[in-house]
Amino acid sequence: MRLLKTGAFVRAAQSARIAVSRAPVRAALAQSRWSSSQTAAAAAAETQHPFPDQSVEISREVDPTKTAPESKDQQEQERFEKKSKELNHGKRLVHENLSGVNILGKPYTFDNTTNVSDSILRLVGRNLYSTPDHPIAITRALVESCFPKPTYNHFTVADPVVTTHENFDVLGFPKDHPGRSRTDTYYINSTHLLRTHTSAHQHAAFQSLVNDEATGFTICADVYRRDSIDKSHFPVFHQMEGARVWDLPVSADSRYEAQLRRKEIIAKDVDEVPQTRIVVEDQATKFLKGSNPTQLEHDAEEVRLVVAHLKRSLEYLVDGVFEASRQMIPASQKEKMGPLQARWIEAYFPFTSPSFELEVLWNGEWLELLGCGVVQQPILNNAGLRNSIGWAWGIGIERIAMLLFGIPDIRLLWSEDKRFLQQFKQGTVTRFEPFSKYPPCYKDIAFWINSSPAAASPIGAESSSGVAAAAGGDATKASPTETQPAAFHENDIMEVVRDVAGSLVEDVQLVDEFVHPRTGRKSLCYRINYRSLERTLTNEEVNDLHNQVAAKMKSLFDIELR
Ligand code: PHE
């Protein structure tokens, strides 16, 4: 799972994204809850370092493009928006000196931070998580079923455009967090982006719990990250977020008494989470200052209870999901396999402390499945839950779906081919039957990087091993605030290939890299593996695509083709 973490705990976090449900999701209701609660609780803002004042825009209704102070600009902007609204989703508009795009019926203007491409915008709105019989929707239902109503509400959020505030600031991301980088994140303009994680909706979802019967929620949505091209990475994937809070009981005589009582309640809730047969090794039981601390305002014993509830709930989830996949294995073989093995390890996220990751041993490999932790108290305070304590987790759905259904290539999940889609049925987990394997066609592209050769390492030398490719960004990449791209970044070629060839490319790999001893210029060679999942590509077709990739690379970046 590509996790939005950083610092000393950034670990090899390559391919996965996991996750989830059974209860049908009330998307429409979810939507209306969102907007009403967003605006209502916006008033109760608080400032606590490093969490900003949440009275700053949290609602999509406040559009910063409308706050342009100059009336002439404003008029121009309004004319632009009017025109753009008439366009269909994904259509670009150039009007007077503004350019922009319509995304799901809403107009956005571009600026010098824009890096979202047409090929990405075409994927917006597919809503795989609510497409009946789709493996993503089946997996989502499975996860939701482990967090049942009425304790948990189940949300989906169709519109992936959020503000930088929602995606980063309100969650306490430092200004220089690599996750904010333009090389990792799709910016529509300087204030809006395609969400990089479902945590972008945590704040609104916590607000929805104020005065609600539910004390927890799950959120499922599509998320977007600029990334490499291979069988387990796609620039759009799905995540689920889960959270649970405990309020202080009101009937108590004093705060002290209330807290004592709340601890009893949490302890009882821990006992009520069903035990599993998973063999769990816990390497994260000490919440030490400096590495994985409890928060200052929290009672250590209460944190232990919240963490116990969090860990048990997620073990229950993993047990449910992996048992579903093991149902397909014959009983005799299953016995030989023994119980599922999992382990808890320490982690770091800006929005939880202490934080953890859960890994599962699958086919002899430890798979990182999810990130979680005790919610940073300012986040709950800002959402109107000052007297609550709680946990949150986030998982990627693709990794789980691919394991569950035996799907070998992530692109299949986006396939509209009936031979794929007709294999799956709501509520059941079945093994994917490959319908055909079409021949690959490799083509290389080699080029010199012209400017600032020293700064132009495409993958950051160390991360070529795959380490530090955390979803939240790679510290070796360009800074989040720069608007002019660095000479070249590996995600740039990925983006060009995607734009030209879409899902006709299986993977793109750096196969050669060297620095000219005399000029100091760097040369890179990438191998592009063209292969359709649905048909055999002709030579002509591949040549044409490859020429287009080369031409686009040449025109967009300061490189010289070799
Ligand atoms: N949002 C995190 C990610 O994308 C996952 C996470 C969610 C971690 C909630 C902790 C709590 O990687």
UniProtKB/TrEMBL annotation:
It is an enzyme of class 6 (ligase). One of its GO terms (molecular function) is phenylalanine-tRNA ligase activity. The keyword DNA-binding does not apply. Its EC number is 6.1.1.20. It holds the Pfam family FDX-ACB. It catalyses: tRNA(Phe) + L-phenylalanine + ATP = L-phenylalanyl-tRNA(Phe) + AMP + diphosphate + H(+). GO terms for biological process: phenylalanyl-tRNA aminoacylation. GO terms for cellular component: mitochondrial matrix. SMART domains: FDX-ACB (SM00896). Its main location: mitochondrion. Residues 221-434 form the Aminoacyl-transfer RNA synthetases class-II family profile domain. Residues 40-91 are annotated as: Disordered. PROSITE patterns: AA_TRNA_LIGASE_II, FDX_ACB. Residues 58-91 have a biased composition (Basic and acidic residues). Transmembrane segments: none annotated. Residues 436-562 form the FDX-ACB domain. The keyword RNA-binding does not apply. It is found in: Mitochondrion matrix. Keywords: Aminoacyl-tRNA synthetase, ATP-binding, Ligase, Mitochondrion, Nucleotide-binding, Protein biosynthesis, Transit peptide. InterPro entries: aa-tRNA-synth_II, aa-tRNA-synth_II/BPL/LPL, Fdx_antiC-bd, Fdx_antiC-bd_sf, Phe-tRNA-synth_IIc_mito, Phenylalanyl-tRNA_Synthase. PANTHER family: PHENYLALANINE--TRNA LIGASE, MITOCHONDRIAL (PTHR11538:SF41), PHENYLALANYL-TRNA SYNTHETASE (PTHR11538). Is responsible for the charging of tRNA(Phe) with phenylalanine in mitochondrial translation. Belongs to the class-II aminoacyl-tRNA synthetase family. This is Phenylalanine--tRNA ligase, mitochondrial. It comes from Capronia coronata CBS 617.96.
